[in-house]
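Propose amino acids for all 496 sites.
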């Protein structure tokens, strides 16, 4: 009502606060993140706010943050009036894999062992489903703490144990093995097999390395669109199954390597290569090649994209006008090569944002494992819609979600695709509405039309839809953005 600050809870504890001893003494002064970026859920009756926190900075190197690092990667319950800690439940200790909690928990009442229990369900980026008692913060289903590898980068202190929930089972595969190499064509299989042999992939908690680690966690498991529950205790969840390959490098040597580069090239390596590739060829179906960008876009258009971002590409407002010019010249191959970055200038993106902490190991490359055509380098399904009965912890069903029509045409069973939007369960019916990446005439859309009646597509340009419910003339109207097609679909349902 007044806009006045009511309370502050430090997710990196300060001296005297609970959890302070799970970090080095001065961590709160220099380590960032551990934030709640994915939204909160309020239990008005209890006056308690529930949320998940993210991983600490730097995402993939924790040499300077020895300890379990509370309250990073925690499911939290705070008194909404006072900000006082009710309980916390840490799902990853000393995160080295960027496994933030990607969405707010859903609040739900379940029948557990014959009793009604007010619970919450939190899904994770690595595809786990935690079902906790809302008052006690304890898991309703068994969770094991198991030994994990500790062979980290120099100076690293990987935590020796991590959590493994036994029920519900994970939404996606947890470790990529040889049996998971894509089988959509012999060419794709051979292409991925060659890369597979060079990558560390034996354990989902294998610490990042300079030779390469294959991880589920960025487009594997749950995403920021969140999940739907219906009052009978069913969770509807759209999961991704795309592994990513992470290669780390020592910052000092990377800087040295980048020093002889032109300014635009160095800026490109630092800010753009993780998505568009070191070779500018892009990666995956979603990340465009910039090799011939000059044929499609003018310098002004590229500068505009850098300022505003586009779809899944973030804006780069932190770059100066000069830096934007250098990048554009590099991309249009007009850079003269005279402007060099000063030797020893950090290439870590963190410095660009003026953040004081610089880890001694930084990301050299972080890319989805994709085949030569950009399709996921893993056996389908690549995206699924899951229904889990949270009363029992058992899956009711799991189906592929989304499709690449050109692969279906070739006779490949529907693969599913990545999805980042959220599903919506509507009362009194079996409607569950996740977001599809497909074209308008594809079988998925046809199936939706059969289910829902009519869909109208309107042009818009974003990829991360969250359906919104509107009621109009005794019909539900559900506008949602359909990824990939860059369209807004409006679906109308009869009101029950
Ligand atoms: C997080 C991943 C990511 C990063 C980092 C990123 N991009 Fe992109 N970029 C994308 C995606 C995804 C698209 C497609 C956007 C769309 O579909 O609207 C894109 C589109 C573009 C386009 C338009 C391509 C076309 O074909 O029209 C340009 C130009 C571009 N990016 C340049 C850059 C530059 C320069 C940087 C570094 C400063 C950068 N991007 C960093 C993901 C990224």
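Proposal:
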């Amino acid at each position: 009502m007044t806009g006045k600050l009511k309370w502050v809870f430090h997710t990196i504890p300060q001296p005297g606060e609970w959890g302070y001893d799970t970090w080095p003494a001065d961590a709160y002064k220099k380590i960032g993140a551990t934030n709640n970026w994915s939204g909160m859920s309020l239990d008005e009756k209890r006056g308690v706010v529930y949320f998940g926190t993210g991983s600490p900075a730097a995402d993939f190197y924790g040499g300077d943050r020895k300890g379990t690092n509370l309250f990073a990667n925690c499911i939290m319950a705070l008194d909404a009036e006072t900000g006082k800690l009710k309980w916390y439940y840490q799902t990853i200790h000393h995160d080295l894999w960027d496994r933030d909690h990607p969405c707010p928990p859903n609040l739900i009442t379940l029948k557990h062992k014959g009793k009604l229990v007010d619970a919450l369900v939190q899904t994770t980026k690595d595809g786990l489903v935690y079902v906790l008692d809302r008052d006690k913060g304890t898991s309703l289903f068994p969770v094991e703490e198991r030994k994990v590898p500790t062979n980290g980068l120099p100076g690293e202190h990987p935590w020796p144990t991590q959590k493994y929930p036994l029920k519900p089972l994970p939404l996606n595969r947890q470790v990529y093995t040889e049996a998971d190499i894509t089988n959509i064509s012999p060419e794709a299989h051979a292409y991925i097999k060659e890369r597979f042999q060079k990558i560390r992939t034996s354990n989902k908690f294998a610490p990042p390395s300079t030779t390469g680690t294959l991880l589920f966690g960025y487009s594997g498991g749950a995403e920021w669109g969140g999940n739907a529950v219906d009052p009978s205790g069913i969770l509807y969840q759209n999961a991704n199954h795309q592994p990513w390959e992470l290669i780390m490098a020592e910052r000092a040597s990377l800087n040295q390597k980048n020093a002889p580069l032109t300014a635009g090239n160095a800026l490109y390596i630092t800010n753009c290569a993780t998505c568009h590739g070191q070779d500018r060829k892009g990666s995956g179906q979603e990340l465009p090649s910039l090799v011939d960008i000059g044929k499609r876009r003018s310098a002004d258009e590229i500068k505009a994209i850098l300022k505003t971002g586009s779809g899944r590409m973030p804006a780069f407002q932190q770059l100066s006008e000069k830096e934007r010019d250098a990048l554009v010249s590099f991309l249009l191959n007009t850079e003269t090569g005279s402007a060099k970055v000063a030797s020893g200038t950090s290439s870590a993106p963190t410095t660009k944002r003026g953040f004081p902490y610089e880890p001694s190991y930084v990301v050299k490359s972080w890319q989805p494992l994709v085949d030569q055509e950009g399709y996921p380098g893993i056996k389908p399904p690549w995206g699924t819609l899951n229904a889990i009965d949270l009363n029992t912890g058992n899956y009711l069903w799991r189906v592929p979600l989304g499709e690449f029509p050109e692969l279906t045409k070739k006779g490949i069973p529907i693969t599913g695709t990545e999805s980042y939007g959220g599903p919506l369960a509507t009362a009194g019916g079996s409607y569950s509405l996740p977001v599809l990446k497909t074209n308008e005439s594809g079988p998925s859309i046809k199936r939706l039309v059969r289910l829902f009646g009519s869909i109208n597509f309107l042009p818009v340009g974003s990829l991360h839809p969250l359906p919104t419910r509107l009621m109009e003339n005794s019909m539900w109207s559900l506008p949602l953005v359909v990824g990939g097609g860059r369209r807004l679909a409006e679906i109308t349902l009869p009101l029950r």
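Residues 271-272, 274-276, 286-288, 290, 293, 296-297, 302, 305-306, 310-314, 316, 327 surround heme C (CB under 6 Å). Residues 402-494 form one domain.
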